[in-house]
Amino acid sequence: MLQTGETLISTPAERYLLIYMIGVLFIVCTLIIVFFMVFQKRKNKLLIDKFNQQRLFEEEISITRIEIQEQTLKNIGQDLHDNVGQLLSVANMQLSILSKQVGPELESSFLESKDLVKESLQELRLLSKSLNSEVIERRALEDSITTEIERFNKLGLIDSELIVEGDSSRFNNGKDGIILFRIFQEFFANTIKYSKASRLRVHIEYKTDLVIINASDDGIGFHVKDVEKGSGLINMESRAALIHADFNLTSKPGEGVNLNVTYKYRSY
């Protein structure tokens, strides 16, 4: 029995060997963990780089698409101003000359027609300005929206109102202003075409580091989730994403449509 007990007692060499093996095992495990962490970090970096490259690619595509759209709108606005506007100007001058030769019985109708041509010319000039991005950039966002609101009221398309709060001088990024204006121009077009609304309200609030723009109508509304995302809604969302603005469109049947865009000021 004594000999058996003695065989269970480990020698110093055996203890050192055990400690050595435990140390080696610990080092190997540590190296495996470090290797795994480095591998995971590199993998995450590759995924992030891939995501950023994809995002930059999509932004570049969006920028290119918007530049093409802006150039097309600019060309249309220029053609309207130069060609159709010139024709209306000539027609207005001819009517002015002919007004002296019209008898009393036709004078009232003739003057009414002359006024219609004159109003059409003014409306055409406003429309051509709203299509030209260079004009929008010079006039600033607020002025461009004001022109649209005044045009709607003048033509009797819809009862429109614009409310402005805060200091507009805080917002001086003309290029982003064009994109914001196009977002709300799309909203206005949809309101007039599809909403059957009688009222349109726009509220611009300039804060210290951001501007909040809200537009709403009292039209028939719709279920946002049930509506197929047409090019108009996609354009609005993609434009907002391009300038890192928060985009929120809400609507319910019978409760109109509400669009809220929050844009943090950016320098060029």
Explain what this protein looks like in three dimensions.
- This protein is of the alpha+beta class and 268 residues long.
- It contains seven helices and five strands.
- The protein has helices at 2-8, 12-98, 104-131, 133-139, 141-155, 174-195, 231-242, and strands at 159-165, 199-206, 210-217, 246-251, 257-264.
- Helix 5 (141-155) packs parallel to helix 6.
- The radius of gyration is 34 Å and the shape is elongated.
Oligomer: single chain
Span of the ends, CA to CA = 91 Å
Q: What ranges have pLDDT less than 50 throughout 5 or more consecutive residues?
A: 1-9
Determine the strand fraction and express it as a percent band: 5-15%
The average pLDDT is: 79
User: What topology, given as strand order, has the largest sheet?
Assistant: 1-2-3-5-4
Estimated helix fraction? 55-70%
The number of helices is 7
Radius of gyration: 34 Å
- Gross morphology is elongated
- Which class do the helix and strand fractions yield? alpha+beta
Topology pattern, helix = H, strand = E: HHHHHEHEEHEE
How many β-strands, per DSSP? 5
Major beta sheet, specifics?
A: 5 strands, mixed
State the main characteristics:
five-stranded mixed beta sheet; single chain; 268 residues; elongated; alpha+beta; 7 helices; disordered N terminus
SSE diagram, text form:
Elements: H1 2-8, H2 12-98, H3 104-131, H4 133-139, H5 141-155, E1 159-165, H6 174-195, E2 199-206, E3 210-217, H7 231-242, E4 246-251, E5 257-264
Parallel strand pairs: 1-2
Antiparallel strand pairs: 2-3, 3-5, 4-5
